[in-house]
Amino acid sequence: MSKELGIEAVWPEGMAKPPIPYSPAVRAGDWLFVSGQSASDLTTGLAPEAAVPEAFPYYQDAMGKQAAYLYGRVGRILRAAGLEPERVVRVNQWYAADMKAPGYERGDLTVNNKRYVREKHRFFETVSPPSTGIGVRGHLVEGAKVEADFTARYSADGEYPVAVSAPGVPKPAAGYSEGVRMGHWVFLSGDLASDWKGNWGEEGFEGEVHALAPEARTNGLYWGDEPVAKQTEYILGRLEKVAEAAGTSLKHAVKAYVYLADPADYPAFEDVWAKRFPDPLDAPARALVPNVELGAKGCKVEIGMDLLMPEAAHLRRAVTGGWTPKSQEPPAMRADDLIYFSGLMATDPATGLAKEAAPTPGLPYFGSAGYRQMAYILEKARRICDAAGVSLARTVKATLYFADLGLYAGAMEAWKEAFADAGHYPAATAVEVNRGLWVPGCGILADLVLYDPQGSGA
Length: 458
Known about the structure:
The chain contains 6 helices and 20 strands. The chain has helices spanning 62-80, 114-123, 227-246, 266-276, 369-388, 408-419, and strands spanning 7-10, 25-28, 31-37, 88-96, 131-136, 146-153, 162-164, 179-182, 185-191, 253-260, 285-290, 301-308, 316-319, 332-335, 338-341, 347-348, 352-353, 395-402, 427-432, 444-451. The protein has a domain at 30-160: CATH 3.30.1330.40.
């Protein structure tokens, strides 16, 4: 069925097949979506080649070894798909933060990604693609330091992504592109409210050290001071400048990736977002993820985006029906041959966690919470698909955020059932955030992408 849909799983020759509903990558028309890759051998855990010998624990760096192994596999996947690294338009990194430590607090910086970045630059020799790096509590592979997923584009006319840089905007410290343009698509890196200098060494410096740009700072002297609002305004303004440098604007954004260190900051963030996108049905689809570690001191929010160029604006339209989000976004946004969903949880507007997804009172150990929640999420997704006139079988990419990876096995049973007849399993990434998601009891947030060329229906 997948080939009939223009969708095909990519399996490099000789690559191990783990006992989960998994594809290393999925090709969908001109798109390639690569599942989250870590330094795992896919069958037993961390690959021996990526492990630091116990007898010599200080002679090698675990992050560097794992990154080298990870990018070796990504190279195999891209070659099997007939692509070069230069075709990659987005990279997401999920770093293992030390959130399980007893003294861990929000705002701590516990990730050292220097050697990962070194391996990444060796892999991407010309243009380092737009990038987002987020600290998470856990990965599926014991001992994994990092997991990364990738989006790439084919081009019949030989076009490559072109780096976009906005004049006067501070450049990312890790050296990745602020954005790239390819055809009528633009991809923007996840951005923080940092000028990559902060207040360290400033004349008259006093107080806590932080990485914030001067324009994004608040003084904390009065009631009602909401740092995340100021930071959000700054980030959106900077993303607008990068979009303009590419020849487009945020009004043509089709998907936003938003990460908040503290879910309590959501109302202040949403106030600013609603000013920028006052009509929820004209706002981009959005994955809004809480309880993560961000990579700069004092930064509370990170935002990345995918956009269309103005000449492709007619290919952008909201999908309505099937579900109405409580927050400021449409259920999904159609953009050319993709449909971006907003983040889905097993929620009911009347009860929070939906009754169908909740355990039976008095029988909390009967059944699988992961299965119930994922089954409910996928049923919600089907209702949105019905409103869009497409099949859930067209799902090509999923990013799954868990409050507890103990829910993963049950969730994958529901996932396997949903895609058993699709002919492919979507490319997928699964990570664990810290402390919980948006609604008490909800342990899974699913961010889905579907492939449906305009006018194809089905």
